[in-house]
Amino acid sequence: MSYARQLLDTYPGAVGVDAGLLASAIDALSDCAQACIADVDADLSEQNLTEMVTCIRLCLDCADVCSATTAVLSRQAAYDLNVAGPLLQACIAICKNCGDECERHARHHEHCRVCGQACRVCEQACRQLLDAMT
Amino acid sequence: MSYARQLLDTYPGAVGVDAGLLASAIDALSDCAQACIADVDADLSEQNLTEMVTCIRLCLDCADVCSATTAVLSRQAAYDLNVAGPLLQACIAICKNCGDECERHARHHEHCRVCGQACRVCEQACRQLLDAMT
Amino acid sequence: MSYARQLLDTYPGAVGVDAGLLASAIDALSDCAQACIADVDADLSEQNLTEMVTCIRLCLDCADVCSATTAVLSRQAAYDLNVAGPLLQACIAICKNCGDECERHARHHEHCRVCGQACRVCEQACRQLLDAMT
Amino acid sequence: MSYARQLLDTYPGAVGVDAGLLASAIDALSDCAQACIADVDADLSEQNLTEMVTCIRLCLDCADVCSATTAVLSRQAAYDLNVAGPLLQACIAICKNCGDECERHARHHEHCRVCGQACRVCEQACRQLLDAMT
């Protein structure tokens, strides 16, 4: 069981959303942020560097948005939909864009395949959480 | 002239938005993130700690959202409105909430007055940028 | 297998350190950062709030140091020991302090027990990596 | 007067270090983080992209280390020298490396000149603070 889930299960108050969905989203966001950071570095090592620029930019944005959302969702104060809602929407949008771009490179670059998968899982987990919150 | 503005003025490509508005938003976001982090620490030193909990939580979220938005706006790739739009909306919402709460404590705690001001400036700068982008 | 490990295994260049140790450290750092953020929020919900202030402050620092180190270690450029070395030392120190403080509260607050465990695992993983790098 | 300085001047407790040095370091760290993020994006837009890879990697690390140090120094709990000391050393090392690399490109790329300046100012401010703390 992930730390995110354990911390939700020991939270000294009510958790506003289904703990399973929330923990899955937090874990997926945290994984996606790390994968994107690592993929940028891998992209920078490739021969066809100019073709990787879009992927690098999207991964950089994706990492920042996912990191912030990991933090906000890890706090119960987050369940102000005026904040968590658009934040999740930003995540869904950047994970979609970044996942699409990574998949374009997946055949040639295994690291992009891995990162693209992290983006897809994250996009999906954020969608499910947003649906449950609204 | 801030580094943000200098870097926009030396950008080796077209900047998608008015550079003045963008630099103001980046600077305000960066200032607001730092002010919120410092205000959390100041709040934790106050006697009436239980009354400061809401302020602490909002400042924590505000710092994270503003930091991520500083980073995303600092990249030209950000001008995908599907990402930057909801991100700015999340900023506006959390800066509004956090600024309101800080102002409630401003008479008794000078640091909350200062932080509240950083939130107001940031909220305003994000609104102006979002208006210019849409 | 974690994304961190998968991305190391698909890295288009040489990885400067044992990939298993490195992936373990990255995963532990990422987990610890999230656990600390969540524990701050849980601490803020406790009745004995004034007794939790030290724990909150340490968790805040621990989260920031671990997040930055996750990112730096996820890049191969990190293997400049002049940067990664002190960064890992800062992690080890703050994870030690934060883990000690969390354990003091572990009997009364389950969330502190969980967070303390994340700190211990992280401290250990950072020590092993630092040993392997020097 | 910067928000960092205003928040130190209204801190409800003793500040462990000279407030002027501390505020200067916090402001320089925050500026340097933003400059490095923006410079990465500018580098990615250059024709001689392969020659910019080292600069990009160093800027990415520099941004992460400076952001975390901004946060830790913004909290009074930071004045545990076991944590703040190595963190400042990591900053000094990465700002030195990143500043050197940016200066190598300064004649051809104005944005690197600006970013290099932010790194130098930050390195200097961190050195002065570390001297004052030890």
What does this structure look like?
4 copies of one chain form a homotetramer. Chain A has 5 helices and no strands. Chain A is mainly alpha-helical. The longest helix of chain A is centred in the first third of the chain and has 25 residues, at 19-43. The mean pLDDT of chain A is 95. Chains in contact: A-B, A-C, A-D, B-C, B-D, C-D. At the B-D interface, α1, α2, α3 and α5 of B face α1, α2, α3 and α5 of D.
What separation lies between the terminal Cα atoms of chain A?
Answer: 27 Å
Assembly type:
homotetramer
Beta-sheet strand percentage of chain A?
Answer: under 5%
What is the alpha-carbon Rg of chain A in Å?
15 Å
Task: Write down the secondary-structure element order of chain A.
Answer: HHHHH
Mean pLDDT over the residues of chain A: 95
Largest sheet of chain A: none
Biggest chain pair contact, residues each? Answer: B-D, 39 and 38 residues
Counting DSSP E segments of at least 2 residues, the number of strands of chain A comes to: 0
Q: What descriptive keywords fit this protein?
A:
elongated, homotetramer, mainly alpha, 134 residues
Quick rundown:
4 copies of one chain form a homotetramer. Chain A is built from 5 helices and no strands.
Please outline the helices and strands.
The structure is a homotetramer of 134-residue chains.
Chain A: H1 3-9, H2 19-43, H3 53-73, H4 81-105, H5 110-133
Helix pairs in contact in A: 1-2, 2-3, 2-5, 3-4, 4-5
